[in-house]
Amino acid sequence: MRRHRLSRRRRARRGFSLIEIMTAMTMLAIVLSSLAFLAGQASLRARQVSRNTFRTGLMSELTDRFQAMPFDTLDLYDVTDTVVAGGQRFRRAASVVIVEGSPIKKRITIQLSPVGNDADVQSAVLYRSRPSTDNVLYTP
Fold first, then answer.
1. Are 99 and 113 in contact (CB under 8 A)?
2. Interatomic CA distance for residues 46 and 49, integer angstroms
3. Rounded to an integer, what distance in angstroms lies between the CA atom of residue 114 and that of residue 118?
4. Does pTM surpass 0.70?
């Protein structure tokens, strides 16, 4: 008879208790919410990297363009406009000024910032000099 009672108790205790299920669900909710937060942060970081990649490409294009221009065609100016790269809008400011005390040097300043976020500015400063008229190759 005693064996009979023990086997009934064992049969009745099969499976998980409500507390075990609630504990497992709570742990699962914590893990999934942590993963959701990390996925959101990764998405935000990917957008920032994408914006910086396009901005760096624009900056490189502009600096190369100013480096390739002949010195005498670099007129003094100050221009601000909006450009679009990769579906993102950037405010571009470029200026060319003569360096103080040197009539043969010009300073080119380029600034790029996402539209609506003027605190996030990427800048480049280039200096160009009038090329020497000496025969640098020493040819006749």
1. no
2. 5
3. 7
4. no
Residue 43 CB-density burial (10 A; 0-12 exposed, 13-18 middle, 19+ buried): exposed
Q: Report how far residue 43's alpha carbon sits from residue 74's, in angstroms, rounded to the nearest whole number.
A: 42
One-letter amino acid at 121 equals V
Q: 109 forms bridges with which residues in the sheet?
A: 95, 125
Backbone φ, ψ for residue 124 (5° rounding): -140, 140
Q: Which two tokens stand for residue 111?
A: 């600034």
Distance CA 29, CA 132 (A): 71
Nearest of 9, 28, 12 to residue 20 by alpha carbon: 28
Contact 94, 110 (CB under 8 A): yes
Tell me the pLDDT tens digit for each residue of 107-126.
Answer: 999 998 888 887 888 899 99
Q: Give the DSSP H or E segment for 106.
A: strand 105-114
Provide CB contacts within 8 A for 63, sequence distance 6+.
110, 124, 126
